[in-house]
């Protein structure tokens, strides 16, 4: 009788205790079982309740703090309080991941082409009078900065940020903010290269979008932003009756 070869079972990955415990607490926070403002038990109590080593509990809390889900104060009278990450914290996190991940410029530009025309559309629908005035003011500052490339690009970045805020869509504006940072770091200065004609064209396109936003013309804002970003004209998701006739810009 011939011998059979042993079957290779293979290794398994065992989750780290700190990750498991962090997941447990994170789930209770996101499910609302631990509402914002809830004071967590002390580190000593968490150690006793969980049966984990102090170093494991501490690492779990550090994970949650980095994710913006708790605020921890050290010291005898310190402790951890449940919180939620702010939009700025989310933007910083996404921006950091984009820097570390370093996606190619084409992927960043495509992401912007998808998001920003809709941001312009929503801004034209929902902007406040103050935001409309701020966009116009930034256009004037951009015109004054046209002789200096870096100041000009900084004004452009401020305009795009203000437009995103005017959309009143926190998800879109937060994601766009992170993507825009990467784009302006990697692409914008190289693209303009100090070319006065390109800078004047870019400013003219900003002014046109601003005018559409100021005058509550969402479809025009969408199309003009698409043109500004050189979005490929594969299809136009807007149609007759979506705010204004398609032919009007």
Please describe what this structure looks like.
There is one protein chain. The chain is mostly helical and 249 residues long. It has helices at 17-30, 43-50, 54-66, 87-101, 105-126, 129-144, 149-166, 170-192, 196-214, 218-228, and strands at residues 70-73, 79-82. A two-stranded antiparallel sheet has the order 1-2. Helix 5 (105-126) packs across helix 7, helix 5 crosses helix 8 and helix 6 runs antiparallel to helix 7 (149-166). The termini are far apart.
SSE topology:
Blueprint: H1 17-30, H2 43-50, H3 54-66, E1 70-73, E2 79-82, H4 87-101, H5 105-126, H6 129-144, H7 149-166, H8 170-192, H9 196-214, H10 218-228
Antiparallel strand pairs: 1-2
Helix pairs in contact: 1-3, 4-8, 5-7, 5-8, 5-9, 5-10, 6-7, 6-9, 7-8, 9-10
Look at the helices and sheets and give the structural class: mainly alpha
Any idea what the radius of gyration is? 25 Å
Question: Based on DSSP secondary structure assignment, what is the total number of beta strands?
Answer: 2
Overall 3D shape:
elongated
Main attributes of the structure:
3% strand, two-stranded antiparallel sheet, transcription, Four Helix Bundle (Hemerythrin (Met), subunit A), 2 domains, GntR_C, Tscrpt_reg_HTH_GntR, disordered C terminus, 2 strands, mainly alpha, DNA-binding, FadR family transcriptional regulator, 249 residues
In short:
This protein has 249 residues and is mainly alpha-helical. It folds into 2 domains: 17-82, Winged helix-like DNA-binding domain superfamily/Winged helix DNA-binding domain (Arc Repressor Mutant, subunit A, Orthogonal Bundle); 88-229, Up-down Bundle (Four Helix Bundle (Hemerythrin (Met), subunit A)). It is built from 10 helices and 2 strands, in the order αααββααααααα.
